[in-house]
């Protein structure tokens, strides 16, 4: 990546990306910075590598430690960004967990997945909503999964349910955010090679219409589009990023 400081479709804008330490989140941080945004990468893991890469390319980024299920911490982070930057334009809710599971999984895992993937997403939205609605501008992108309409194969019921909830949340926020200039969309990735999926078996690439496993950058591209000016008349949309595994939803 290479950032042309002060230029790009997102120049002057400020973005918060949860789960920004690695994988899809880190790729989204790089993409938004490349388009000129100041990026706050938030994660329980260290975001130093993400931030360093952006800075080396000439961009502006900061790493923040955040447990998305901590509602007070989410509010405090949004407030801190506003205090420092005077604006918060973009929120990408990428933080999530995806443990292997079954239909009759254990309840502890169910509670944890729903807490992080659903409640954590809502906590971030709720923390940013007052600032975006007051300015009458916002771009919110949620990360769902093809598991919500395909049915998880090696993930548990809780993961598919959580990503179905995220898709529903995107549509709800879109309907309610429209009058305030807040657009909310989601991406639904398919089989993506990241650290989170490293321990999962992957399908034969020949079974995928595009004949390859997806990358984090493949997902970051559509997110970048949904955060930028060319998606100004799109809200409540779920974009499939599956290499053709899912052709309609």
UniProtKB/TrEMBL annotation:
One of its GO terms (molecular function) is oxidoreductase activity, acting on the CH-OH group of donors, NAD or NADP as acceptor. SUPFAM superfamilies: NAD(P)-binding Rossmann-fold domains. One of its GO terms (biological process) is fatty acid elongation. Belongs to the short-chain dehydrogenases/reductases (SDR) family. This is 3-oxoacyl-[acyl-carrier protein] reductase. It comes from Chelatococcus asaccharovorans.
